[in-house]
User: Fold this.
Amino acid sequence: MKTKNIEEVIITGALGIKRKADAVTNAQQVVGAKELTQASSPNAVQALTGKVSGLQISQTDNSVGASSRIVIRGNKSISSNNQALVVIDNVISTADILTQIPPEIIENVNVIKGLQGSALYGQQGVNGVILVTTKRGSKSEKTQFTLTSSVEVTEAFKFPLIQQRYGKGYPGEPGFTAGDVDYNGTTYVPFENTSWGPDYNDPLISGQYVPSGLPQANNVPLYEKYAPVKDHFSKFFKNGVVYQNGLTVNSGGSDSYALLSINRLENNFVIQDDKLTQNSFLIKAGKKLNNLRIDGQINYISRITSETDSNLYDDMLQMPSSNDIRVYKNSGIEGFLSAFSINPYYTVDHTRFETNNDYLSGILSLQYDFNKHINLSYTGNLSIKNTRSDNHNDGFVAKQVYTDSGETVDGGTLQDYSGTANFDSYYINRIINTRNYYGDLLLNFDYDLTEDINFKLNLGNNIQDSYRTARSMGGSGLAVPGWYDIRNVSNVIQASNTNGAQLYDNLGFENNTIRQRSIAGFANLDLSFRDYLYLNSTFRIEESSVLSTTFDGEVHNKSYPYYSVGVSFIPTKAFSFFNDTFVNFIKIAPSYTRVGNTSAILPYETSEVGIIPSGYPYNTISGYGINPSQTNRNIKPEFVSTADLNVQLGFLKDRITLEGSVYQSDTENLITNANVSNTSGLNTLRDNVGKTRMRGFEVDLGLTPIKSAGIVWNIRASYAMSRSKVLELPEGVAEVNIYTPYSNRGIGVYAVLGEDFPILKGTTFQRDDQGRIIVDSNGTPLLSTELTNLGRVTPDYTLTLNTSVKFKGFTLSGSMDYRKGGVFSTLTKSLLTFTGAAEETGDFDRSQGYIVPNSVQLVNGGYVTNSTPVGGSASYANIANYFTSSTLQSLGEPTVIDATAFKVREISLSYDIPKNVLATTFVNSLTIKLYSRNPFIVYAKENRNYSDPETALSNGNGFGIAGTGQYPTQRSFGVNLKASF
Assistant:
């Protein structure tokens, strides 16, 4: 409920406890239904992006079924989960479920940033809370219908910018059986995947139609013009189409309500045949029977995705700019444009990941009023999620023997030529079932102790029980092509081989049953004095099964207390001299919170659980051994102590609002891996050692420059900054490796003692004291094998701007943000450098050699400016050999670039049809909206559209490395219709 003044807003907080905004003692921001739906986002997580200060949302990929990472304010832990807790209708849920909730059914989202407001959730609320409240039926006895429908076109854009000077080929590589023309030091090779070929302006080949790619099935090659194809990466992607349709039915009475919401989402992705279909059903109803209040809801979501392997984008990035990939749509692998990469069209047809998700959740809420001061309430939830995935690859075996094509592949198959063309077929099935129970029982008291003092107390108990089973089966070698069934697999992956499927579809191989439980008692105390001074205090004592361990024949566990206290003081209500002044509202709210975090400890890790070692005792005989990675059975939660100060100001009757927060969180007893002696038989020992500190602040400015009967203009801008530093680590440990995705690349995400967290560390060029690159006598850079701090992953600061202008029936809205600083590693840049497509490999005359910029040589004990080309001489071949060398490709430093980005997230223009126009119809209201998402994006200058800084290979603490299998950013343009009757 929102009334005229900001201080009269009613806020729903942790456990559904409602307070006036004045009484809230922590920083939080509420995003309403209009903001969430202004650009018809297909999921609520996407709709939140760019609308809340201090909220960072990133995606692990840009595929049709992309997952998201949600972090509030920053990272408090180096090993534990730093993602925000998601609560939907007062029941703990997940970010994955939130991405499936249609924004149309959400009433509002309260982003609880200050930990004092989330402390009642205990260790699960340690990173802040995304508190979602879905809509409920109206109390009107008249049945109301609301229909929403939108259609949008999605396109991929922000493709890497590449050099347009040199085309396909490689120096000295034979391409034609009749001999090869020397094009100023290089050759044209029709089936190369690199752009180390002739200059596009070379008169010997410029603009000519030349054989291109491998010979086709008839052994005749295709011909393409030797000239750059404009936007050649984009030719593979199609325009996607997204349909969203929803129907909501409301009904009720003075003491009851009912709501039915049906929504369907169809996303035909920008990759051919990739598709997402989602159907969701929500039923909510409530009734008051004398002193008993009953509320219930059932939510069912069916989500089906079909997608191919996104690593096809890696193969696309290798494509020289003279090729139009559409020419090879029906050429398969043996007739593709390159002998060294897989035809993406073949991947689309023969590699599929099919996933079916079914989610069913039921919530029952009861409240019995003993009198007007005391009531007892219960909220219980049972949710069931079933996920079935069927992944397959048809494999490939080269059979065509090339003859009489005139290319040097003649006389053999593609496998004979490349040696790496063939790959295995496989089928892998996974079934994961999850059952969760969540229950809160609260006894609530509300008394006016005196005329000036109000007392509210909530005493409660929370029980959570999660049961998860995972079953996987599959293997390689499909005996009958096209039959995807375990009975058709020749080489079965053993159930004990947890990484057995990693080679095929990059996923693990789970076969386990896990149960996790927690029980807690808690208390919430609210005191208010004369409507201008408020105190809130919480206490929770919690016991989790992940800390259970068995020794000496007994089960041991320990409960831990978490607590918080906050004060809210409203000077403008306490002192009369503020009346009729420029300042109409002041709120000062300091708070302190101490909570724990055990998310880094998985179930059974504190118990003596054995493993089946690979190849022990023999390859064909399984054995049983002690797990070499152990967790101290007496391990405790990480404890996060947070001091927070929140100040709110209102001017000119809230035409101007200003809110600022400053905070510090110290995380002690970090759960990290300590060094252990090899003689112990252990690899690692996880224990409580270490400390981090997070500091930051946020400023939110709200303006209403124009407010009249005809036009209203609202602006909300914010500034947020957060820093995390590692203060302590285990004795003898200087750093902790958080994430290193590839062993052959010198780049990883680390937590380093005394440094900001997280940072990228990588191998680098050797440099002199002036920062110049040191080269050897052949002009080739010397490399350092030591890992060097290459920069902080998190931004220096973020700015957001949200605005809306309403003129008569028109509303123009926009949302944008600016991320300044920070770095990330993009492996796309490395790949484009290898292929010779990166701009830096083509902005000079290759026939004249390449002198490493800003480089020096050691001569007679001193460094002098280098004048020696790489390889020791001015040779095209030396240049290509340098940039394609495994040494340079494994170097971390060149992949790290500025993560600065400016994004216009949403723009929408809506029009409300005047009611007098609809007066003679059965339609109560009708709104037509045009919208766009991600219409405009600008990256840092050195990011030549290589990757979006918000994408990452990991959705955990190892974010900061973007891979070559992550699709370019997509933008959407659509129209939405909303009618009620």
Notes: Residues 827-835 form the longest helix (9 residues).
